[in-house]
Amino acid sequence: MTHAHNDLPLDETSRDALASTGLAYAQLDVSDEAAFDRWLQSAYRGFHFDGFTTEQLAEYRAGFGAARVIEVRDETVAEPEHPVATVASWRSPVSLGEGRSAEAWAISLVSVASTHRRRGIARALLEGELRAAHAAGLPLAMLTVSEATIYGRWGFGPATQVADYRVDTRGLRFTVPLPAGRVHRVSAAALRSLAPGVAQRAHERTAGEVPLDDLHWNLSFALATRTASHATKLRAARYDDAAGEPQGFVLYSVAENDADFADHTLTVEYLCAATDDAYLALWHYALDHDLVNTVTAGLRPVDEALPWLVSNPRAVQTVARREHLWLRVLDVPAALSARRYAASDTVLLRVTDPLGFAQGPWMLATDSDGVATVTPADDEHSHTAAVIDLGVEALGSLLLGGTPVDALRVAGRLVEGSPGSAARLDALLRVPRAPWLSTWF
Fold it and tell me: Does residue 176 share a domain with residue 97?
């Protein structure tokens, strides 16, 4: 079965709701390899992935074997052994910046077969996950989404943004002095064992990051069967500081232009920097290749420093920007007190939550060290506190500090209970860099 720390009880409310429509809602025994294989094939079919080979199934079973795996089955379909809906979930820290983190319930692979839409299945799956996580005392739930129109109805709010960049390197100069240390070209296979440790240090610097498991790392390094065909194209470089300590790495590939051999495109597939020096050195390396006129990079932070590092900032174009990590607050005091704040103040947050987990007035009080105390508000008419009315989805969007408070005010997502309250809350939540999640889960 699943690892004990992920093995939360099955939600009886969701089970009863689906049973009333003739559907079975159950936790999968992941030691049953045949059943687990059917679950994996069904889950990824829901996202239009190619089917798995026998070798790929073995790798994915190992990768998801620690998760809590839920399936919905319909005994009336032609192949009742195949689930018609899926979800996987597990405990995971999410970075809050400054070396701090909070425990969250990560939710993934939510799929419903096209034959079973509009039967309340997605609602049962999501609410079942939230009730189970809340009962277990987890302060947050989180997910990355394929569609941005779905998850707000369950109280999730977009908390990080990502951007895709395209850089025209013709005539471009790197204008920042290069740091001490050295960039080494290395094989991806040799770099693989160092990557998690470097990434852990990098993730501590930025809110929104989550640790990757072995399956994700192996997929990224073309060491998994599903991505092995990319191994001949994948290249890697590592930055060591002046003391010889690895502080960053980049995975990349290069594509030729058939019409012009001097016009290759270099794609940055993953650039990880635990220090500013590593960031500078690795971006310089990526931009300074002969026969390359274009560098592309996806799933990057929206406040990328790159335009400020080169002679022509217009050469760095943002080709796409979108939300990425969505957060759902389940325990207001635990979630809000886990992070640091940029000022000392008191804010009364009157939170509306249709599912009840975060409902109520909460007093957020921060001191000069940025430490917060969050308590149920006894006096909702405080004359000194800023007052904000907001939904739980807005609270999730604000938690990491990447969403401007005034943008939500203008959009009607939060309401000031007293003049100037939005500005005071914004001053509290301010962070030195935009929150960022560099992967999917």
Answer: no
Element (H, E) at 410: helix 405-410
Burial of 222: CB neighbours in 10 Å, binned 0-12, 13-18, 19+: buried
In a domain, 144, yes or no: no
User: CA-to-CA distance for 185 and 282, rounded, in angstroms?
Assistant: 11
151 within a domain of the structure (yes/no): no
State if pTM tops 0.70: yes
86, 28: one domain: yes
Bridge-based pairing state of the strands 100-112 and 140-144: parallel
Q: Are strands 157-158 and 345-352 parallel, antiparallel or unpaired?
A: unpaired
Residue 437 belongs to some domain of the structure: no
Q: Can you give the residue range of the structural domain that contains 375?
A: 331-429
Exposure string of 145-162, with b = 16+ CB inside 10 Å and e = fewer, is: beeeeebbebbbbbbbbb
Strand partners, 107: 89
Provide the number of structural domains found in the chain. Answer: 3
Over residues 19-69, the pLDDT tens digits come to 999 999 999 999 999 999 999 999 999 999 999 999 999 999 999 999 999
Assigned domain for 153 exists: no
Helix (H) or strand (E) holding 240: strand 235-240
